[in-house]
Specification:
The protein is an alpha/beta fold and 391 residues long. It contains 11 helices and 16 strands. The structure holds flavin-adenine dinucleotide (FAD). Flavin-adenine dinucleotide (FAD) binds next to helix 1, strand 3, strand 7, strand 10 and strand 14.
Amino acid sequence: MRTEYDVVVVGGGPAGSTTARFAKTPANSVVLFEKDREIGVPVRCAEATSIPDLGRFVKINPCWIASTVTRARLISPSGQAVLLNLPANGAVLHRRIFDHDLAQIAADQGVEVYTKADVYKIERSDRYWRVYVRHLAHDYCLKAKIVIAADGVESRIARFAGIRTQTVLKDIESCAQAMLANIDVTAGQIDFYFSSKWAPGGYVWVFPKGDHCANVGLGVNGAHFDGRSAIDLLNAFISEKFPDAARLTCVAGGVPVAKSLKQIAVDGLLIVGDAARQVNPVTGGGILAAITAGNIAGTVAAGAIDQADWSLKTLKEYQIEWDKGVGKDYSRFYNIKEWMTELSDPELDEIAELLHDIPPTEMNILTVFKVALRNKPTLLFEAIKLFAKMI
Ligand SMILES: Cc1cc2nc3c(=O)[nH]c(=O)nc-3n(C[C@H](O)[C@H](O)[C@H](O)COP(=O)(O)OP(=O)(O)OC[C@H]3O[C@@H](n4cnc5c(N)ncnc54)[C@H](O)[C@@H]3O)c2cc1C
């Protein structure tokens, strides 16, 4: 390990590996630190994403794809099911392999990668950062021009730089998930259950990972907590719907369903991925956002090192690009999420009933929102702007 790097990336998830890859040029030095012993493990994700969107940033390796998805089934509290065609081919990934490969692609560009390397403090010193990392029981202090905070939802690195990262309860979903085997799943279809019985202010997902196997999980909105933990609710759901299932894995974690942080760039530091709350607030999906943001952040960081100016003046380009692109869409999704989390069970049933009369060929995500938001013209306008371009 060197004592000085141009760019230090903290976190080996999709955000960190992608930023590192795009930050690396033949002329600069980039290092990535991951505190766990293995990149991609443990998997705290339901692993669903859009293949065409992912393909804009990385060549898709078929090994990453556990199953492809073309339909979604929405199930209302009283059990009415609405089947809809999805706009673009989706997939449930093997994130264990996917995350590992993203780091390997970065390493192949010349990025140094260290696992079991926990960055426990950063300090500003003149135009540089002092980065303190504990690697295999040894403490190191390095000098960096740019630090990338890609340390996930529990990010501490951004806070060391003085940025407020607290998220209010209503903007956090507490999630629990199990990978179930020995269950019946419909190939090509993902299921969502909406009901305060199973997931107050959130939903249950069943994402197939191949024959007889699926990621089954749920998220509970922090403002709707009623004393039952996400794990308790998941256990109850599995006992009722999949009584014979075997549990191959079990994980819990938080998903920010907030607006992206207002400030994601300061002198010598960029915040990327979950650490910056770059997650679609309606779906809770953050894989694509992490990679999109990593692409922008890495490119901006490489340019800053090249120009020998890593002050906010140069780095703010990342903030500008994010805010005018995905960030703008996510602000609209946030308004829709605020409305969705407050829907009562009777309202959800009423929407399902109205959707019953729509012919299957016309049933897509935009149709669902057109019906659901029929009395909310402003939100309907936002939904049309978001979903019309996806269909
Ligand atoms: C239950 C659940 C289900 C989800 N389902 C989906 C889904 O279906 N689709 C989807 O798109 N998104 C989903 N998400 C969200 C998705 O997992 C995240 O948005 C995505 O992983 C964000 O990537 P990231 O690189 O920002 O953060 P992470 O993947 O969390 O990576 C951050 C990394 O930083 C490391 N780290 C943290 N602190 C330090 C430190 N001090 N030093 C060194 N390393 C550090 C961590 O160990 C971790 O590996 C889900 C999340 C949860 C919890």
